Amino acid sequence: MVPTLASHEPYRYQSLPTETSIRVLRLEGTREGKFCTSLEFIDLADDPFFYALSYTWGNPHANGVDFTAHFNLVSGEYSSDSKVEILCQGKSIYIQTNLVDFLHELEASLTRADSFIKIHQNQEFRIWIDAVCINQDDLEERASQVKMMGDVYRKAAHTVVWLGRGDEYAKDAVTTISKIAAYPRDVFAQSKITPFRRQDPAIYEASNLLYTSWMEWCSLAAFFKRQWFSRLWIVQEVILSRELSLLCGSHNISWDKLVAAARTVEARCKVLGFSPSTLFMQAHEIAVALEHNTIQLARWREFYYATSASEPHAKIDFENLIYDTWVFSATDPRDKVYGMFGLMKTALKSKMTVDYTSPVEVVYAMTTKHMIEHYSSLRILSCVQDASIRRIKPSPSWIPDFSLPYFNMMCSNGFFHTAGRQHTIPQILPSSSWDRLKLKGHLFDTIVETGNDRTSHVNSSVLLDPSWFELCMLLSQPYQHTGEPRTEVLWRTLCANQTSDSVVPALADFGALFKELLSAMVMVRAEIESEAHAEAEAEQEAGSGMGPAPDCCTGFMDSLNRAREKWTLAEFDTLGRDEILQHLCKRPRFLSSDRHGWLMYTLAKLHILALTEDNPSTPSWEELEQFYHNPTYVMRRKRDNEIVLVRQDDERFSASFQKRYGKRKLFFTEKGYLGLGPASAKAGDVVAILPGAEGPFILRHGHPESDEEEERVMSLVGQAYVHGIMNGEAVEMEGFELQDLELA
């Protein structure tokens, strides 16, 4: 804990002498068990010799699944109020534990022959460490130094990456990195090895590769799960540094060797079609491969140095860098922008300022406006996340929440042109305030029905949703806007008509994969109902329950038989195709109340789709019964008293669907369109087509933080996919009447 009465007088920072000056730290031994240091000024304009440190201020250890217990155990040591005193020119400075750990390792390394520190005889060892070399209490200095941090790492002779003190995994992790880096990449990629999994040594022997044990894979996972790898500031630190070495406790690893190991793992994962390392992610984390950040950093670093231009960073595109590094985190949410400042092009940097006195929402709003203006595009608006998950509140509805570790663009990869190819430049109007965005747009349609909101479910993308079929039944048959069968429109909308790699349009054989996926979902739903039925019966026998709900079935065949009975009882079996379309496929939605959520009613909806379409992409009763007896895909399996979800053998459709569907739901419009939009979308929301945006947006009348409706003021709910208008069809058909819109 920081004492209330320091044993030494506090160190007082002197003002930096020039605009290009920084402070650097020198180690001068210890006294009374405390590190003795000094700070001196150097001017970057003089091209001085110094090292720089890249690290994380807080707990540096691995966190997630097997590593959480240790992370929590040591967290107290790294809390913001658990600081340690060091002496700087005899005066007191308090630093956090992780930095103290580094100074201990640095002191020991300076005396070792194999030290990572390389100093010539005429040079002194000096190192730049942000926590000490910047006066953190002076917000003005802090802002000016943040602007210079790109130059600091660019000018440093060497950057030391401190991953934190060692643990039980560190030594094995370093040897595993060296081993995997030495694997012939092509051989490993084409082997039968699954990274981050326990496998028989014979599988490695078959490819003539040294065996990597389960514990070694765990150690590598623990290495990649160290907090440094997710820290936003490391992006510019790694990209700009001349030379890099990593230190984990006393273990030194070269950056090149780490990248080689990560790329070898990535090569195998590309062949496998999934990332096994996500096994080590916690349920609330985004399922990004552990090696992803290292590979992304390496690509940007190589891109930066691949040019012979006098200003290599002129080739770095700030917009793409923002998107590629969104998964990185920062303690101060403003640093999600400021942490990229050293990589901005001069033209964009001149328009932006670093100001830690500005509220987060102002920083994000001004950044969004600058990006729209600089790139003449509304692409950044595609990153606006659903309101239900935003952290920065209250804030304008039209700004992305950069503090979240993810976004999910759906229609911003250059394939769609909803406003037509002649309207690719946004028409931005002067705004009255920082929190308003004025622009011209076309209000095209209105949402009248929405699907169910499944965002609270961890596995929402594998749950059977009856509302899909209810909305599909409202569509004209065939779909009046494209002439396609309506069940094809359903699956194309669920995956935004693109592959997982954003290739448009989605392949025609996705329809068969969708049918197989739906069939497997039906079986999972039947199992869940069967388990609920058995549990309710047991509670009834024990005298603690009312028994199973009347429509809860004991299994798939029970659900199917009951659906057949009700179909006949209602005399629907006497209806022809046209009569079914006329009487059952219209608003209000068929069997859409909560009491109709049981599988037997979902089967009735699937039956309607099968009867009103030739060769539908949804399964018929006969196909489901055949699937039940001879399944081609079993999604849910019991393994060692646990229930696990299994991937489709051919997961091209499911991969694209899962990528697009998260935090979204289907909707049906007044003009008869089917769309996929934000989870917060509701009836009455407007489908808007905006010049400069690839896809349409869902807007809502009124201010997002007020019940009062201001004239012409709207809030942005999020981007959408609407089947049949994505290539300018609506503009060609109806014209493009633009009006002034003000987003709040």
Automatic annotation (TrEMBL):
Span of domain Heterokaryon incompatibility: 50-237
InterPro entries given for it? HET, HetReg/Transcr_Mod
Which PANTHER family does this one have? Answer: ANKYRIN REPEAT DOMAIN-CONTAINING PROTEIN 39 HOMOLOG-RELATED, HETEROKARYON INCOMPATIBILITY DOMAIN-CONTAINING PROTEIN
Name of the molecule in the record: Heterokaryon incompatibility protein-domain-containing protein
